Amino acid sequence: MSFRIVARAVASTCVAALAGCTVGPNYHRPSLPPVPAAYKETPPPNPPNGSWKRAQPSDAELKGKWWELYGDPQLNALEARIEVSNQTLKAAVEQYLEAREAVRVARASYYPTLAAGPSISRTRESYNQPGTKRSATNYQYDTFNIQGQVLWEPDLWGSVRRSVEAAHANMQASAADLANVALSLHAELASDYFEMRGLDLQAQLLNNTVKADADYLHLTQVRFKGGIGTEVDVAQAETQLETVKAEAIDVGVARAQYEHAIATLTGQPASTFSLAPAPLTLKLPEIPAGMPSDLLERRPDIAAAERLVAAANAQIGIAEAAFYPDVQLGGTGGFESANAGTWIQGPSALWSLGGSAIELLFDAGRRHAITDQARDAYEAQAANYRESVLNAFQEVEDNLAALRILDNEAQTQQVAVEAARRSLMISTKRYKGGVTTYLEVLTAQTAQLADEQTQDDITTRQFVASVQLIKALGGGWSRAQLPKS
């Protein structure tokens, strides 16, 4: 009869556990600053060199392999290596897997723990111990024991549920962090690649200038030998030629550094990696910028920040659960005998069932402090989430502005380059005709080279800004990609 009473008590507690309450606030996404309907910085419509346009509902969204928009097979091949060989990304993957296993650890607390095992011992008791004296033949005896133990702490107040909720949110935040690391690595590789190709474009310009300057040096030497030029003209032409040669050589320093950075990003030793020179002659792709509200669903860093808020909210419930009694149920069962022959028999069976409930009466305000601490942590995470949204808007606006301004600058610079070329052509004719000194030609040469270098630099900056804008837009990632369980 006593066993039935205990069994009923255990069953009642199980039902109460299944229907138990969950303390602490339920999660609601924090309020955000006002989200604008459109970006302030809108690129010019249909700019001459491709560039950007305002997205329409029918526009295709950015896809995962966004770098394919540039149409560069070598860039595509390099980007593909990041997923396979980049060590930073591998570390981020392992961190996500660690967070995923933490969810399993938290869920295990829903269930009882079961332990079982045999034990055999021989005991010698003191012959002179207090109490009834044993005979000299039975103060030594054997014990054969095999028993199992079940312990269960029912989740009456939702502490386990909140722990699982926090672990799951942290796991999703880790998944978003992983996506953000991948996006950053791909963007860094693309930026380094375009910077390197921009330097190849500069090197091409300087090498062509060296050839032109060599022709000018020959012209001054011929005129000097013919008595219609001066030695100063020759010295100036030679100075110009050697200066440009030095600039062409110097470009190799930065190019080598970008090449080494690309090697590291793709998981290859810098000493065995090389890329042949290829000037940047691509066309800027046309990419939809979307609407500001899209960022809330397409930026992995925003998703990670929001999930950390959810995890902090769950920690409040865990802290509040400590104010309620700690209930634990347990039971043991097995067999025990003094002889191996009667070990596993009915008369050797033993069992016990029981439970306990402990309420902490005084802790000097510790639980209140922990709860307040959890609420403060939640508010801090909510503020970080709002800040990440504001930063996202800023990054998009920054790069939209950069592309718009650089597009205008490129058009103006093209006019300047054409004017500098005409100026050099006129000065050259005047010099050959004996109307002016070589100093006028030298001034025109320097101006043309500076304008053409600025033009090439603008082109490089446009491509880097386009990569940064794609990164700011989330690179085609979607919140729907977060793991559900």
Overall description:
The chain is α+β, with helices and mostly antiparallel strands and 485 residues long. Mean pLDDT is 88; it is low at 1-13, 15-19 and 44-60. Helices cover 58% and strands 10% of the residues.
Features of this protein?
four-stranded antiparallel β-sheet; 485 residues; elongated; Outer membrane efflux proteins (OEP); 4 strands; alpha+beta; 58% helix
Can I get a quick summary?
With about 475 residues, the protein is an alpha+beta fold. It has helices at about 1-20, 75-85, 85-105, 160-225, 230-265, 295-300, 300-320, 365-430, 440-470; strands at about 115-125, 140-150, 325-335, 350-360.
Structural class: alpha+beta
Instruction: Give average pLDDT, whole number.
Output: 88
Task: Please work out how many helical segments DSSP would assign.
Answer: 9
Largest sheet: 4 strands, antiparallel
Radius of gyration (Å): 38 Å
Q: Please identify which CATH superfamily we are dealing with.
A: Outer membrane efflux proteins (OEP)
| Order of helical and strand elements | HHHEEHHHHEEHH
- The low-pLDDT segments are 1-13, 15-19, 44-60
The fraction of residues assigned to DSSP E strands is 5-15%
Question: What are the SSEs and their pairings?
Answer:
Elements: H1 2-18, H2 73-85, H3 87-107, E1 113-124, E2 140-152, H4 159-225, H5 231-265, H6 295-298, H7 300-321, E3 326-337, E4 349-358, H8 366-432, H9 438-472
Antiparallel strand pairs: 1-2, 2-3, 3-4
Helix pairs in contact: 2-4, 3-4, 4-5, 4-7, 4-9, 5-9, 7-8, 8-9
